[in-house]
Specification:
Bound molecules: coenzyme A
CATH class: Alpha Beta
Distance between the termini: 27 Å
Keywords: Acyltransferase, Transferase
Number of helices: 4
Helix content: 25-40%
Strand content: 25-35%
CATH architecture: 3-Layer(aba) Sandwich
Low-confidence stretches: none
Strand order of the largest sheet: 1-2-3-4-5-7-6
Pfam families: Acetyltransf_4
Largest sheet: 7 strands, mixed
CATH superfamily: Gcn5-related N-acetyltransferase (GNAT)
Domain N-acetyltransferase: 1-162
Number of domains: 1
Oligomer: single chain
Organism: Caldicellulosiruptor morganii
Radius of gyration: 15 Å
Protein name: GNAT family N-acetyltransferase
Amino acid sequence: MVIRKATISDIPQILSIYNYEVLNSTSTFDIRPKSTEDFLKIFDRHGPKNPIYVVENNSKLIIGYGYLSPFSEKEGYSLTVEDSLYIHYLYRGRGIGKMLLKFLIEKAKEDQIKNIIAKICAENQPSLNLHKSLGFTEVGMLKHVGYKFGRYLSIIILHLTL
Ligand SMILES: CC(C)(COP(=O)(O)OP(=O)(O)OC[C@H]1O[C@@H](n2cnc3c(N)ncnc32)[C@H](O)[C@@H]1OP(=O)(O)O)[C@@H](O)C(=O)NCCC(=O)NCCS
């Protein structure tokens, strides 16, 4: 298994991982599946500074991806990023999410980042546990800011100081 920078040709596999979440879970508040064009824009936004990384298994299948994004475009926030990661539903519970989040934390340290923020749906216990297991602490909650699958959803904000 390797973690490497994503390329445009990975988009179909990344889309299939992400759109599964869009349609089946509250891990993202997107409601309509994303298109290749949407992901091309995400690639453009990330560029070389905050690349998208994929986890590729020994059969060259992409089983997860993740990235850091600026917390805000305002310059004063330049030492703070947010993390995002998605593991293919068939490959969860095998330590891959933890490996990828550890990798993203190391990348943030290399870039002299001081804070990583995670905004996680309150019902996403696996992601809350994953982040807490790597030192993130809960710093707040935004109640009922989301609405998906006919219910209101809250966001828990976690913070890791580097
Ligand atoms: C959250 C997610 C990234 C975790 O990835 P994963 O590869 O399944 O997780 P791992 O096997 O590396 O487990 C790491 C830790 O997460 C927690 N965890 C994982 N699965 C869990 C589950 N089903 N229930 C509770 N905690 C769980 C545990 O704390 C675990 O640590 P431990 O094994 O030492 O107890 C994955 O479930 C996922 O992609 N979910 C959908 C997308 C998503 O929620 N992304 C995050 C958006 S904020």
